[in-house]
Amino acid sequence: MSYRTLARHQRAQVWVGGPDQTSPELVWESDDLLVEAPNWSLDGASLLLNAHGTMWRLDLAQPARGLTAIEFSGLPEVNNDHVLDPDGDHIYLSAMDGHLYRGALTGGAVERITSDDGWHYLHGVSPDGSRLAYVKIDDFADPGHLTVLGPDGRPLGMDTGAGHVDGPEWSPDGEWIYLNTEAFSEQSGHAQLARIPDAGGAVERLVASDTVDWFPHLSPDGRFASYLSFPAGTLGHPADLSVEVRVVAESDWSTPLQRYPLFGGQGTLNVNSWSPDSTRFAFVAYPIGT
What we know:
mainly beta; Neuraminidase
């Protein structure tokens, strides 16, 4: 595995939208650095993105100054599955060696926190910071399954039914884990949005759609959510497709408040990117043009 790069005449654009924004705002773009999956820092001042196998910071007060690399030591190349620690000072990272790491946002040495029991793709940290929710893959020919890593370091698999799951992250109150799952369809790859109680139990479908829906992300106040919608029949969450970022009220997933069509997919909205005040969130588009 290796990090992604831009195609000829392609750009990476970081946008910000929200429940009240009919038109999103372009805050930064590049024709040489393919950035992915923004996290919004807990102080509200910056976005944290991966590109070229490492992490970068974008100062929202001065985006024209560009990105600043976060210099980690002992960290393999990372992918686009990274989540902030609730302490606001650290970040959890999924690396291309299949393991999860924790490091300070100021850089420096990192700590590996997973054992050699398969591949791990992180998406959620519990509100109290004590547990991690990730997708565990033993064999890439088989579906990934939801796993929770507790403070004792022991992984606990959770039953979500048949089919691949992805994007698990906790609700702000810690009572639910939100995810996308193929459990509601016999059609291969037809991911739909769902949630499962934190303690385990029945998987609850959030919306029934003809599109392939991935990565539900709740705002910090729990009132809104964003997610990424792929065309019907899409397998997985590939790059370079015409997709749509949607904003909904958490109380009504079937009626989008905003729709942002764009060219993207992989890297656009893999992780939670809401601002601390729940008014905005960030996402990435990858247009191609002369």
